[in-house]
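Reopening this ticket.

The earlier resolution said the output was attached, but the attachment link was broken on my side. Pasting everything inline this time so it's all in one place.
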Amino acid sequence: MTSAKKRIWGWFFFDWASQPYSTLLLTFIFGPYISKLLGDGTAAQAAWGYGIGFAGLFIAVLAPFLGVIADKAGGRMRFVWLFSVMYVVGAWGLWYAAPDNFNLTLVMLSFAIGMIGMEFATIFTNSMLPDLGTEDEIGRISGSGWAFGYVGGLISLIIMLLFLAEGSNGKTLIGLSPLFGLDAAAREGTRSVGPLTALWYAVFMVPFFLRVREPVRAKGMGVLQAAKSAWPALLVSLRALPRQRSLFAHLGSSMFYRDALNGMYVFGGIYAAGVLQWSVVNVGIFGILASVTGAVFAWLGGKADSRFGPKPVITVCVLVLTLVAIGVITISETTVFGLTVAAGSPLPDIAFYIMGAVIGAAGGALQAASRTMTVYQAHPDRITEVFGLYALSGKATSFLAPLSIGLVTDVFGSQQAGITPLIGLFIIGLILLLWVKPKGDRT
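Inline output:
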């Protein structure tokens, strides 16, 4: 294997290592567990929304400064190390969410520390993408990376369902007691998702740190000096954005549709647990379907991206996800797409499984294509700066979906009503996409 391929595969391993935080903690295992623990789906969705939303607000405030500091000081790898520690510590802390001694504030604080670590580490690993290949290769590399990450999330989810996460009968999906003598009555099997996520990341980041090397650049300024100059430099970049209409539209569009997609991922499991009364195991199966389709279509999306460009891929995916959001709120235990079904009918469950598969497929392709679109929008001499702005746009409203879902759920006392803000976010993203040029302002 050539050194270039080793770097690419090493970079892929960040997606593999970090994906379980989204798959296991945000969506399919820990979120539904919290919902069941609180015993009220509406209260759980609201609390989860506020917690994730305020963590997102913290990310939005600091992310652009970190990007500018790293550009000026160099040494992105040291930032990846720092935030990797936060990831591991935060994830491990979720083990202490015991049913007989549950402190929601401490649990959400631990969750937020891990989430902030994951998001900040992602800023620096994403900014390494342009160093891995030519512009024509970026789409395939990005899509393959997302696909590889989904496979990692899928395998970690299967391990949880088969061997650790207990259902209402105290057994795992295949009828086993949780491994290692974990106490099912104390939900230790399900709570082990925190340590598993932390260990998974620590182990599988080894190939990343061994194989990924930053290109040799001129020595930058010190970190403290870079921090002092970060705000003026950021202001200059932001003031110049309106004159770069295609890039400006891309950042605005992706800001809204990525926020809506994250809202789907974060609240899909909690929604199913509260509205359809799904167990952790049911939600896990839902996650397996979404992960499989996410991996397949991220890879296929990368190929479509290379052939047609990222804009058509993004447009189709956002349209599909808008329709899915509308469809999801019409599914309950007694209705499917607005039509009444008999009590005990399997149709609501089947419909929601299908929705999960479509969310995974469209979401995987959308995220991969969005990374490559950023490369197309950037001037070759300013790719790192533009990726910093892309990180800013992804975090600037990262609190909007969870906070709006939490607020609407709280006000109307309905999980179904709480999901409606996602529809508006997808539509705004789709409208702004009209001003994005396929090859950016360079054309």
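Reporter confirms the inline version is readable. The chain has a mean pLDDT of 85. Residues 41-73 form the longest helix (33 residues).
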